[in-house]
Amino acid sequence: MTYSGLPYWLISLCCVCMLCAGHTHAQSFLFSKLTASHGLSDNNARALVIDNNGFLWIGTSQGLNKYDGYNVNTYLKEHNPDLASDMILDVKCDKLNRIWIGTPEGASWLDQRRIFRRVILGDSIKQFHCFSTFETAIYGNIINTNRGQFYYDSTLNKWRELSWIPAPVRRPFMDSERFNDDRIIFCVDSLVAILDYRQQNLVFQRRFEHPVSACRLNETQIVVGLQTGKVIIVDIITGREIKTFELKHNLNGKLINTNLSEVRRASNGDILVATDFNGLVVIDQNGKITEHTHDPLDAHSLSSNYTYRVLSGNKGEVIVGTYTSGANMGNILNKSAGFTRVFKDKDGNLFDNFLTDIAAGGNEVYWIGALDRLIKWNRTTNESKFFTYYAKTEGGIRPIEIRTISPQPGGKLFIGTMGQGPLIFDPRREKFTKLPRDTSISRAVKSNFVYEISKSRKGFTWVGSDGGLYSVDPVTLQITSYATHPVLKTLENKKVLRLYESADNKLWIGTGANGLYVYDYTINSLINYTTINGLPSNTVNAIAGDKTGRIFVSTQTGFTVISADNQMRHYTYNNGLRYYNCQDLMTDNTSGTVWIANTKCLIKFSPGDGSMQYFEENAGLSIEGFRVGSSTKTADGEFFWGSRSGVNYFYPNELISIPSQLTLSIYNVLANGRTNMITSDYSSELPYMSNDISIQFSAINLYGSRNVYYQYKLDGYEKDWHTAIDIREAHYTSLPTGQFTFQVRASLDGINWVNSNNSVHLRIIPPLWQRWWFIVGSIFLLIGSLYWLFANRNRKIREQKEALETEQAINYFATHMYADQTVDAILWEVARNCIARLGFEDCVIYLLDEERSVLVQKAAHGPKSPALNQIENLIEIPVGKGIVGSVAATGTAEIIGDTTKEPRYIVDDAFRYSEIAVPIISDGKVLGVIDCEHSKKQFFTQKHLSILNTIASLCANKIVRTRAEEEKERAQAILMDTQQKMAEIEMQALRAQMNPHFIFNCLNSINRYIVKSDQATASLYLTRFAKLIRLILDNSNNKNVILSNELEALRLYIEMEALRFDKKFTYGITVHESVNTDSIEVPPLIIQPYVENAIWHGLLHKEEEGHLAITVTMLSENMIQCVIEDNGIGRDKARELKSKSAITRKSLGMKLTENRLSLLNKYAELTASVDIIDLTGKEASSEGTRVILTIPVL
Question: Rounded to an integer, what distance in angstroms lies between the CA atom of residue 407 and that of residue 920?
Answer without folding.
Answer: 83
